[in-house]
Amino acid sequence: PAVPMAGPCLVLDMEVTQKPSRPHWHERHVQPCLAELLGTALFIFMGCLAVLEDSGGTGRLQPALAHGLALGVTVAVLGDISGGHFNPAVSLGVCLVRGLHMTMLIPYWLSQLCGGMIGAGLAKAVAPSERFRNASGGALGAITADEQVPAALVAEIVLSSFLLLVVCMGTVNGRTRTPLAPLCIGLAVTVGVLAGGGVSGACMNPARAFGPAVVANYWDYHWVYWAGPMVAALLVGALLRLLMGDQATRLFLK
């Protein structure tokens, strides 16, 4: 006897079971922004508190380790949800190399800036008021005169480019992606603070500058800490899209 063919209902059921379900809108839009808010708040709280409590004469070592370790840990635990940016310049760079959809860029920026204010506010709440005033709330205060601005701006561009290159090559670029990216990102921040902390403060993150500036009302040369990282994001994005990226990232020479 002839073997009966599978009915259309059976074929439809098989197709439905094989088709992967699309993530819920909450996981695609809300959770990433919450992760960026939470991660940025924790990172900046740890960083500001390290600056405020650095009374043992350790120089840049304590802030460098605190910033680098805090960022590496938060990227490791929250990176699978949002990408672990916690930095408006990183979000811009990742967006340029097609690691973040353009529609999520502004929500990420708002989440990071709000997280920066929350983290700086928490640092103010737990730190002694005298130390908070002396350290300007953990805000970047390395620039004290106009003649220091060119060197500080160049330092911010170079240090931020180093960080963004590590982020984009370690997490987005297909040929160089690595599970050690959180460790590499944390080390990049640590090295940046150790190397350039005396020149510009080694911010490399507009949210890190914005949060303490709002809480402490300290805005001296604040624009440098936006211009440097954002220019770096454009430079690294152009480098990967034109020359260094893998075939899926490059615009030309495919």
UniProtKB/TrEMBL annotation:
MF (Gene Ontology): ammonium channel activity; methylammonium channel activity; urea channel activity; water channel activity
Q: Does the keyword Mitochondrion apply?
A: yes
Which reactions are catalysed by this chain?
Answer: methylamine(out) = methylamine(in); H2O2(out) = H2O2(in); formamide(out) = formamide(in); H2O(in) = H2O(out)
**Record bears the keyword Transmembrane helix:** yes
Q: Which GO terms describe its biological process?
A: ammonium import across plasma membrane; B cell differentiation; cellular detoxification; cellular response to cAMP; hydrogen peroxide transmembrane transport; regulation of cholesterol biosynthetic process
Protein localization: Apical cell membrane; Basolateral cell membrane; Mitochondrion inner membrane; Smooth endoplasmic reticulum membrane
Give the stretches traversing the membrane: 33-52, 64-82, 149-168, 180-203, 223-244
Keyword line: Cell membrane, Endoplasmic reticulum, Glycoprotein, Membrane, Mitochondrion, Mitochondrion inner membrane, Oxidation, Repeat, Transmembrane, Transmembrane helix, Transport
Main subcellular location of this protein, as a coarse class = membrane
Report membrane topology.
Multi-pass membrane protein
List, alphabetically, the GO terms of the cellular component aspect. Answer: basolateral plasma membrane; intracellular canaliculus; intracellular vesicle; mitochondrial inner membrane; smooth endoplasmic reticulum membrane
Family, as annotated: Belongs to the MIP/aquaporin (TC 1.A.8) family.
Could you identify this protein by its name? Answer: Aquaporin-8
Annotated source species: Ficedula albicollis (Collared flycatcher)
